From TrEMBL:
Coiled coil: none
InterPro entries: 6-PGluconate_DH-like_C_sf, 6PGD_dom2, Mannitol_DH, Mannitol_DH/Oxidoreductase, Mannitol_DH_C, Mannitol_DH_CS, Mannitol_DH_N, NAD(P)-bd_dom_sf
Domain annotation Mannitol dehydrogenase C-terminal: ranges: 286-474
A biological process term (GO) from this entry: mannitol metabolic process
Protein name: Uncharacterized oxidoreductase YeiQ
PROSITE patterns: MANNITOL_DHGENASE
Keyword hit for NAD: yes
GO molecular function, one term: oxidoreductase activity, acting on the CH-OH group of donors, NAD or NADP as acceptor
UniProt keyword annotation of Ubl conjugation present: no
Enzyme Commission code: 1.-.-.-
SUPFAM superfamilies in the cross-refs: 6-phosphogluconate dehydrogenase C-terminal domain-like (SSF48179), NAD(P)-binding Rossmann-fold domains (SSF51735)
Pfam families given in the database record: Mannitol_dh, Mannitol_dh_C
Length: 489
């Protein structure tokens, strides 16, 4: 395997056209992307590559890892930023090489280079996939969390920022001082109203340092919202093997993904953007209906499947959805509890959307690990499940299945499956949430509902919710598989 050469720009000539698309100019960097994980590489980077092939433009990407992951930077840079996307679907495997990624930086090591780019006039978009926790927000107010360790650091050293609000504020301040038009800030995370949420986090951070700058950000910087969708698991050796046999080059950092992709973008880019609409992105005035539908239908049921699976022992989503009672539960949850809360345009067929999701979950080629989705529950549960529960309770409607999902998360926090197998709790609030989780259901709910960062007080104090949560925990404690079946019975 290692006797084959590694992917690099000079190797491209020997690849077939179908792996590359038409001739390639060498674009300058026009996008800095914070959070260069697999998702970005299989989503925005692919759309951007194709948009440049269709319509040109200097929209090369500089990807930044904010966690100091020099290993990732070096692996990608050793391949001149090239990598392959390995699409896995019922029809088989398709490998494409992506060239849009021109440079990779690792913070905090490459801060000087990052700022050189962030103040460069040709950089007109800074996009982000930093996951919910990267926004450093106080979820109760939406403002930046002033007690967050990274934020405290950045406020004390505003010229050496490491957090998203810190980096964006410093860069925007430098552009304002230099008279350079601001870049557009494009959140691509699964957050409700992601553009507005990011704007509030950044502006409230800036306000602590400089009122005028905060006002300038408020009035001059565009933060369009987006809905992003593609299921992108972590890389395994199977993708390295698939890339090698398709390309005849060694790729250390390929990305697996499903064939499906969707991107709905609020069209507000004062400094310009790639022609994403030419390659399937939907540019709209209002992203909200799409975003809420995706968060509640897809991400909500993903989390439900993940926590019930961690307890029941299903390690991938296709395995979980292949268990008939679990499929029935998720189907009913979408049809009866989630879909009625959605306010979508008449052209949006919610039931067809549900069926398409179930088909995507059943993709046996993808091997999307439930443990990957189970990460960061404290950040994911509120927009994915609690918002739906609140909407239904306000309308006096039942919340049975949604509550079962939240209960599964709480029981999951005990750190072991029903058969005793232990797993790690990967969550920024793990220390607080998973230390000594009470065994008594009443006590468990009492303790967890007092976590205000997760459960808004109106919800936490609601009798019906409390009661149903206790009941659901009791059921699940007798075994997740049984709970799934009893609940449906
Ligand atoms: C998943 C998402 O890991 C998770 O929490 O629910 O990453 C999901 O696969 C994507 O949002 C799909 O677009």
């Amino acid at each position: 395997m290692t006797d084959r050469p590694s992917l690099c720009r000079s190797a491209l000539d020997s690849l077939n056209d179908h792996m590359l698309g038409p001739a390639w100019r060498d674009p300058r960097i026009g996008i800095v992307h914070l959070g260069i994980g697999n998702f970005h590489r299989a989503h925005e980077a692919v759309y951007t590559e194709e948009a440049m092939l269709a319509a040109g433009g200097d929209w090369g990407i500089c990807g930044v890892t904010l966690q100091g992951d020099v290993g990732k930077r070096d692996a990608l840079m050793a391949q001149d930023g090239l990598y392959s996307v390995v699409e896995r679907g019922p029809e088989g495997v398709r490998v494409t090489v992506i060239r849009a990624l021109k440079e990779v930086l690792a913070m905090p090591h490459d801060r000087a280079r990052l700022f050189e780019l962030l103040v460069d006039e040709n950089v007109r978009i800074v996009s982000l996939t930093v996951t919910e926790k990267g926004y450093c927000r106080d979820t109760r107010t939406g403002d930046v969390d002033l007690s967050h360790e990274g934020i405290t650091h950045d406020l004390a050293h505003p010229d050496k920022p490491s957090t998203v609000p810190g980096i964006l504020t410093a860069a925007l301040g430098q552009r304002r001082d230099a008279g350079t038009p601001p870049f557009t800030v494009l959140s691509c995370d699964n957050l409700s109203h992601n553009g507005a949420a990011l704007k509030q986090a950044v502006a409230s951070y800036a306000r602590v340092l400089d009122e005028e700058l905060a006002d300038w950000i408020d009035s001059h910087v565009a933060f369009p919202s987006t809905m992003v969708d593609r299921i992108v698991p972590s890389t395994t050796d199977a993708e390295r093997d698939a890339a090698l046999s398709a390309l005849n080059f060694h790729d250390a950092v390929p990305v697996p993904c499903e064939p499906f992709r969707q991107w709905v973008i609020e069209d507000r880019f004062p400094a310009g953007r790639p022609a994403w609409e030419r390659v399937g992105a939907q540019l709209v005035d209002d992203v909200m209906p799409f975003e809420v539908a995706k968060l509640r239908m897809l991400n909500g049921t993903h989390s439900t499947l993940a926590y019930l699976s961690m307890l029941a022992g299903f390690s991938t989503i296709d395995e979980a959805i292949g268990h008939p009672p679990l499929r029935t539960l998720v189907h009913a949850m979408m049809t009866e509890e989630i879909a009625p809360t959605l306010d979508v345009p008449p052209s949006f067929d919610v039931l067809a959307y549900r069926d398409a999701l179930l088909a995507r979950y059943a993709n046996t080629a993808l091997k999307h690990r439930t443990a990957q989705i189970a990460m960061d529950g404290s950040q994911k549960i509120p927009p994915r499940l609690l918002a739906t529960i609140e909407a239904r309770m306000n309308a006096g409607q039942s919340i049975e299945r949604l509550t079962l999902a939240v209960a599964a998360w709480l029981v999951f926090l005990r750190g072991h499956a029903d058969d005793g197998t232990r797993y790690e709790i990967n969550d920024p609030m793990a220390a607080r949430l998973s230390a000594d989780v009470p065994t008594d259901p009443e006590q468990l709910i009492e303790t967890m509902l007092s976590v205000k960062e997760v459960f808004p007080p109106e919800l936490a104090n609601h009798d019906v919710f409390r009661r149903q949560l206790v009941q659901a925990v009791r059921l699940i404690q007798h075994g997740a598989l049984q709970a799934i079946a009893i609940e449906r019975g």
